[in-house]
Amino acid sequence: MVPTLRHHEAGRRRVVVHSLEAVRRAAQRGEWSRACVLVDRSDELLPIKAYNVAITACGAAGEWRAALRILRSLTVPSKNRPRPDAVTFNAAGAATAKSGRWQETVRVLRQARRYVPPHPALYTSAIACCGRAGELPLALELLAALRAERGVADTVAFTAAIDACARRGDYENAARLYEEMRGEAKPNDRTHRALALAAARGGALDDAAKLLERTGYSLPVAEAVLVSLKERGDWRSAIALLAKLNATEETYGCCVHAAGACAAAGRCAEARAIVDRFEAPPKSPTSFRALRARRAAHTQAIVACGRQQHLGEAVAVFEDLCARASPDLAAFNALLVACRGNPDAALRVWGRLRDHPRLKPDAISVAETIACLDRAGRLEDADRVLGAALDAGIPLKNTVLDLHDEIDVSSLPVPVAKAVVRRAIKNTTTTLHLITGVGRRHKPTSTSTSLRDALLHAFPIARPGPTPGTLIILD
């Protein structure tokens, strides 16, 4: 009997180890659904590590609902499932936080208190998620709870709370937390970046400048200040700060934000001067980072030229980018925006984008091209662009043509909606029902008209539908 029992236990342990390894392999391959199946259908009592790995795999894939389902199964008393530990709740909280589900993340934290003392990492996930969602009071409340439970908070938790303040421009609370933090944890570059951003967004530019000097013009801090200056369109301050930084690959991100400040203010010449800081194509192992920054800076310069209606300069910046690095979709779209008054130029850019070996036009590309052609009265060209976009499978938001000749154009820009309706009229012989949508975003403003009114004006055969937000076009 004894040897038989030992053999049985040894066999069971081998099965458990094999199952745990299978879950780990599935997680490493990104097969989150298989990891879930393995823990759900196991006939053996698996260790909590297996469930933690499965929850982590779900979080990495953005499947927060699946992660919570596994957590829920562990909180129901059962002989076939282990009790959740701190790592379980950390993984579930990270999964929901990564997907921006702040309410679910806070619920996971509160649920954890019934099983184990919540780990600081779980608090940090909740604080950061609430901060990104704009829930600053709750983020501060969670930090206070962490400090009350643990006596102190770590650098990561304080930094997440200061970042939450920065997102709301609450420099007063950010500065208070920073002073309190210095007695419990050591600030790092991320902390200083968040504090500088809070100061700049809160209007305390002098304090942001002092922090820059105190940190020796640390790049994370400088970048944070430049982000705020870009948001304000303060191109003079952005250029002045950029002049104090050496032009190296490490400062390329700062160049992008400074160019963005120039673009926001429509300062074409200044944006092009920043682009000139990107000299020869880099040959170092970090060249991908530099090329990405180069594309972003050139795109901001194109935007600046477009806002000043300097199409020739926008094209010159674009061609310079093509000579130094392959442009991305954002650069093409920025150039299409700059072509708003020149339909021939817009068609040329559209053609180059369609023929690009790696890039594919998106809804913005289609909308900008059609809008330019519509303003010029070149409706046939606009219709051809729409047809090419539909043939290429480019999604135009949620436009739907169903079996009952009902078209939902509520999410489309007016020029694209007009092209869609013209195409539908050509392709059907029955009455068309249009859904233009209702709600605040569809009401006219001082500079625009509602989609419904625009379609009524463009198509004399259109009539108001029987319900709000609808039109009928008779056959």
TrEMBL record:
PPR repeat feature ranges: 154-184
Highest taxon of source: Eukaryota
Pfam families in UniProt: PPR
Membrane-spanning segments: none
Keyword Methyltransferase applies: no
Keywords of the record: Repeat
Oxidoreductase among keywords: no
Gene3D superfamilies, sorted: Tetratricopeptide repeat domain (1.25.40.10)
Full protein name: Smr domain-containing protein
Species this protein is from: Chrysophaeum taylorii
